Amino acid sequence: MSKTDKTETPLPKSTESFEALLSLFKASSDQMRVKVLHLLNKDSYGVLELCNLFDCKQPTMSHHLKTLSKAGLVSSRREGSSIYYQRVRRPADDEFEQLQQSIFAAIDKLPVPPPQAARIELIKQDRAEDSRRFFTENFEKISQQQAHVASYDLYSQSTLELIEKYTHSFAAGAKVLEIGPGDGDFLTKLSPLFKEVYALDNAKPMLEAAQSTVAEHKLSNIHFIEGDTQSKQLEEVEVDVAVTNMVLHHIPSPAKTFVDVAKHLPVNGQFFISELCNHNQDWVKESVGDLWMGFDPDDISQWAKEAGFSVGDSIYLTQRNGFRIQIRQFIKTA
Q1: Residues 6+ apart with CB under 8 A from 328
Q2: How many whole angstroms separate alpha carbon 331 and alpha carbon 6?
Q3: What are the coiled-coil residue ranges (predicted)?
Q4: Tag placement on the chain: N or C end, fewer CB within 10 Å?
């Protein structure tokens, strides 16, 4: 070998992979972007909400989000006129999946500063109040409006059949909690299957409508609680099964609902949900008060796993209007 010969460092397998790796490190090396990734661990936020949480101007926040998106760390989805951001979970066979999960794991160990925690709570309260106000003002026509989105007869019957399929696994004298019982019709289906039934709703007119339905059927094993899954009135309630039908897309922090429900279930307790799959029909936000435009089934599964559930049985229904419904079973493992 001559003196002019040099040992060349082999290039990465592809320039694209090399650039992607640099982009990943660049995006996760900025203090503000790390804070944003930390915040997006359990929830989705819009640009203006993020600006409020971090006292940041919109152009600056948009720049950070663009950098995170380019690196594959966050994704966006349109909810009506707003754009919401959430963290991205790479496929298991992605070459950077383990690296990204390690970055997220390190970030998630950081504490949430008390001032920011207070602002997060205010945002959730605002979302909850918007939802509660809508149902309070529109409870008389809500069932008719929701029928344009999802057929109650279709998803309620399928949800009931899924619950009945697993009644053999319920403890003797099992108790059930329905979150957001609507007009109470599904409570009448749960009543014969369980010793005690609890109905939880944060809109008083909706709860009163459910109480009226139960009274008409002369059912005596149903108890009503006005509030949400974090209400003090629910603290002492322990059930074997929880159910929610077409409610998650009205809840300010749907991922947190799994955590809240898990507190009231024993190991092997079951959580059944019916919910819209993600869609792009933004008219539902104004027409039926939806906070979220459905959910990716993988996101729901991930929220459940993080809350200590395993993924059980599932049913998927497709309607002529384009909306898809997912009916899911989750089993508490820890």
Answers
A1: 272, 273, 274, 275, 297, 300, 301, 304, 311, 312, 313, 314
A2: 61
A3: none
A4: N
3-state secondary structure of 325: strand
pLDDT at 283: 72
Q: What is the pTM of this model?
A: 0.74
| Cα distance between residue 4 and residue 178, in whole Å | 78
Together in a domain, 106 and 142: no
C-beta separation of 186 from 119 below 8 A: no
Chain segment 299-323, per-residue pLDDT in tens: 999 999 999 999 999 999 988 777 8
Phi, psi of 31 (to 5 degrees): -60, -45
Averaged confidence pLDDT in the chain = 88
Residue 115 lies in a domain: no
Evaluate the CA torsion angle 17, 18, 23, 24 in order and state its sign.
positive
Assess contact for 229 and 260: CB atoms under 8 A. yes
Average pLDDT over residues 35-57: 91
Query: Is 73 part of any domain?
Result: yes
Residue 76 in contact with residue 85, Cβ under 8 Å? yes
Give yes or no: residues 188 and 75 share one domain: no
